[in-house]
Amino acid sequence: MISQVFILSSKGDYLIYKDFRGEAGKDSISVFYEMVTALSGDQPPVVMTHKDLHFIHVKQGGLYWVASTKVNPSPFTIIEFLNRLAALTKDYCGSLSEKSVRMNFALIYELLDEMVDYGYIQTTSTDILKNFIQTEAVSSKPFSLFDLSNVGLFGAETQQSKVAPSAAATRPIMSGRGEQGGKNEIFVDVIERLSVVIGSNGMLMKADIEGEIRVKCYLPSCSEMRIGLNEEFSIGKSQLRGYGAAVHVDECSFHQAVKLDEFDSFRILKVCPSQGEQTVMQYQLCDNLPCAPPFRLFPTLERDYGNRLLIYLKLRCDLPPKSSALNVSITVPVPKGSLSLSQELSSPDQSAELQPKNKAILWEIPRFPGGAQLSALFKVEVPGLSSASLLEVGPVSMSFELPKYTCTGLQIRFLRLTPTQPGLSQRWVRYVTHSDSYTIRI
Amino acid sequence: MPYFGSDETVKELKRALSNPNVQSDRLRYRNYVLRVIRSMTQGLDVSSLFMDMVKASATVDIVQKKLVYLYMCNYASHKPDLALLAINTLRKDCADPNPMIRGLALRNMCNFRMPGITEYIQQPILTGLRDKASYVRRVAVLGCAKMHGLQPGTEIDASVVNELYALLRDPDPVVMVNCLRALEEILKDEGGVVINKPIAHHLLNRLKDVDSWAQCEVLTFLLRYHPRSDNELFDILSLLDDFLHSSHAHVTAATLRLFLQLAAALPAVQADAVLRVRGPLLATCGAQSRELRFAGLCHVQQILRSQPEQYGAHYKRFFCGYSEPSYIKFRKMEILVELVNDENVALVLEELRSYCTDVSPELAQAAITAIGRIGRTYSEPCLDILTGLLALKQEHITSAVVQTFRDLVWLCPQNVPAVCHALDGSEETIQDSEGKQALLWLLGVHGAEISSAPYVLEIYIDGLKAELSPTVKLELLTATVRLFLSRPAETQDMLGRLLHYCIAEESNMCVRDRALLYYRLLQCGVQETKKVLAGPKSDPSMAVLTGRLQEPIGQWASIFNTLEPLCGAESWQVTASGPESDILAQRTEGDAIPVHRTEEDVLAGTAEEGLSGVSHTDEELMLSAGPHLSHEAFERLWLELGVSHCEALGFPRPHSAPETLQAALQLVKIQTLAFSRGETLPWKAYVYTHSCGTLILAELLQKDSEDSEGSLVVSVKQQSEREQAVQGFLTVLRRALHSLSMEN
């Protein structure tokens, strides 16, 4: 039972406020904002209580999405609801930002009015909601040259002509209402998040993959879609199928709308996608990477004469030669009190800087081709350097994106729409692996 | 919220809204209405536009209608008389051929929170309940609840209630769930909606048709239902089975809660259900949404209270990602401490070690504390890590390590030599008062084994004038007096200086009084001082009390899937440092001697036993499990009460697995609170039970020699003295333990 829902900008501006039950006053917004900004880093902010009012919030797109309640509800329900609200807002407005929420506040009010009545969740399904939503979205991003800066996220720099621009999937789902056709697109994304810990001896200590298949659909009418996965796809411990390179996951769960009657024999998912974004399948794989971890690091630490610490890093990318990693950034913790840094990097597009606040060196590589090896030499000036200070160097953490690459090897064999849409529908399949947490101990 | 030029804006909007040119241009009209709503959201008072907005509601443009309704709901309570003007339009809309308009109007009309509205909405609601469009029925059903909420205290309309119960059979799932919600609110004073067998089975059968939100709610309502027979129970459980694996975290959690409640009498079924949600729950702990991740972690923590071994193999899932916010990292560290076992201890420690040099001092300290907690079971590797950290010579790290050392030696005396060796030189680095206190305590209590102890204390005494914290001064006084007792020759001079300074120059009353107290005490003689100050240097039995013990699932099942596991700072502090802070409080006082029986007590106990050695078989069955006792409460009571009875049972302790022992005692209504693990000696167990209206606490103690018969000693404490109750308890206990020993 939700008492109020409100959306605040990170600066505390009121963007959306809806009171469902009249139990609490409007001043609860400022109470919430004061509480959330006064929290110290170690306090969990998800649930906060003021008198008898509980605030549950999530942070998405730089905004606070808050629900307040006077009862003791299921935290999972409220959190998932707020996430769903944010996702729907993203679907309807195209993107999630303070600007888009500001511009489309009428639409969001309309959504909220249909989603929740008297504090009870009524429906959040796009298929039902689209019948009731009348307001048209105002696209917050017409066209800007700056948008091109993130082209390549999904591998736009290939020679193929049929590559979706990265901004294609960030438009409102309902905007094509008047002009049918041309925009009948469907995107199927395979997104994996990789979390890896590599020990100081180069051993793989932990390697988890959380993956999902996400469908973003702009087709106005619902038709059945068949998604074919690798035939050698196996779940759990025992099964082994086919002779090819098996794709294996530990656990797998599906959206409730997915029909699985052909899954066991042919590895085909059948789903009638509703408009907007939805996750049709989620899977996990633990401790059993089918490929080598994408990066290996060979560090050498040396105490130079005086107070200088030499960090020599050799970084190898073990991806296949055709793939490459983008936006690689490496964080190397350095001893407390490090003063200055001089570096030798192997190419001019890389950069490195010392961040005294985080006592770390940040080394950034915009593009790292598979099979390549890069090295860097950092000389750090540390007053009062002792041999114990070397213990403070490490663990190194990395973040990167691997476009067109999945670590599990999961592929989409085919994507069929039945009945076949007349001509104009376009189907895109995109793969990407993100680093959730990639840590290498020294 | 201050808003500049607010008057101007309102005036301008008013002018525009009443401009006939604007009114005739649909788009412009809507845009001005939009601006009103925007100003309203930003906190500007636009209630003076009410009249114009009422006019704007008479339009065919649905978007504009919705916006105006939003406005009206917001201000209806401020302008009830004007709101009545809008009622007419709304009532007309309630009869619109378009169900969407009907529903919209009815919903918003019910949302007007003002007195006197009920007479206008009653009829439309009743009509709405029988509307052919499910959308309108949904709205009307909740309208009943809103109407009831507007006039609290009035009599419940039985016909409406009956109609709502009938609508539970509505083909539309949302109408069904809304009926449950509405009935719950209307019948709140009578205990809410009644879930009888037909309704429960109806709900269970419809569960597949409703969406995930409604599923959760229905599952929560079903918590109220108690199946009549085992067959029915198992039918329900097998029906719920699929939902345990739902792809929605909230459905999984709600199902598990219901499962645990239904199977409250079947621990094996409960354990199995908990095992089966492990996969989904672990997935939630790795979810993309951080908030969801956090909720998952908090609930895993609850499960760990009963079944730490289930997650032991999955410890890597709880390694911290470097980009995670620290509140998630803290939870993960707590979980790692809980699930550590022989197989994973090395890798868990290695991981925790890498957090100790984190850039955030709080995080580093939490990691060090976590290593200390693991050190209670696996001392050697933990001490190696902690000692290594001292070499970094960083303030916050050294301070945390020394505090951890202090807690560790109090619980595990076998670590004293290693700790004493490692402390050397740490006084140069520690700056904060918490760390100083810990170091001083160690120097005072274990000064005999730290060769440099007097010199370190001297440094502190010399720098006393610059010391700001009174608690450090108090600790310094106690430490110096204690060290004087063990190494008088080296300490005498500085103790004199310290006492002189504190008595003559110190401005803090508390410190001065403490100094005077020690001074007078020393005047009474060294023996007297020793009696007071040289208490035990450690208390391993505390480790048994504060150590982990597997609680029954019922302990947390009722708070599962509520806000409680996640809840704010207060409870976070209680769970993080509850028992330890108690111990610290005692220790800094320096004079409390916990859990120590005097000789007299023991003698008195055995004498009594001799007198009334007859077994009271008649009263023996009077034991009852009674309310559960928390560790803290037990500890407090145990320290408060004197031993009322003590006797040797005449046979050694049963060598069965701890779980068997616990289960056996549970059978005879004796609750086990804590016991030593494995074959360690002395072996201890703490149990309690209720009998004849009194609470009985007991300690079972097996001293070192296993072979000599009859070395299991039981000492009993009672809240109010009842000899009969004790005898009954002993008989039951003896029989239970004896039968266990026979089995082996």
Automatic annotation (TrEMBL), chain A:
Highest taxon above the source species: Eukaryota
Location, primary (coarse class): membrane
GO biological process terms, semicolon-separated: intracellular protein transport; vesicle-mediated transport
Key words, A-Z: Coated pit, Membrane, Protein transport, Transport
Record localization: Membrane, Coated pit
Pfam families the UniProt entry points to: Adap_comp_sub, Clat_adaptor_s
Gene3D superfamilies according to UniProt: 3.30.450.60, Mu homology domain, subdomain B
Topology with respect to the bilayer: Peripheral membrane protein
Domain MHD: 183-441
GO cellular component terms, semicolon-separated: clathrin adaptor complex; clathrin-coated pit
Matching InterPro entries: Adaptor_comp_med_subunit (IPR050431), AP2_Mu_C_sf (IPR036168), AP_mu_sigma_su (IPR022775), Clathrin_mu (IPR001392), Longin-like_dom_sf (IPR011012), MHD (IPR028565)
Family matches, as PANTHER family: AP COMPLEX SUBUNIT MU (PTHR10529)
Family: Belongs to the adaptor complexes medium subunit family.
Name listed for the protein in its UniProt record: AP-4 complex subunit mu-1 isoform X1
UniProtKB/TrEMBL annotation, chain B:
Gene3D superfamilies in alphabetical order: Leucine-rich Repeat Variant (1.25.10.10), TATA-Binding Protein (3.30.310.10)
GO CC terms of this entry: clathrin adaptor complex; endomembrane system
Keywords annotated in UniProt: Membrane, Protein transport, Transport
Record's bilayer topology term: Peripheral membrane protein
SMART domains per the UniProt record, alphabetical: B2-adapt-app_C (SM01020)
Every Beta-adaptin appendage C-terminal subdomain domain range: 621-738
Keyword match 4Fe-4S: no
GO terms (BP aspect): intracellular protein transport; vesicle-mediated transport
Chief location bin: membrane
MF GO annotations: clathrin binding
Localization annotation: Endomembrane system
Family the UniProt entry places it in: Belongs to the adaptor complexes large subunit family.
PANTHER family tied to this protein: ADAPTOR COMPLEX SUBUNIT BETA FAMILY MEMBER
Protein name: AP complex subunit beta
Organism for this UniProt entry: Chanos chanos
Gene field: ap4b1
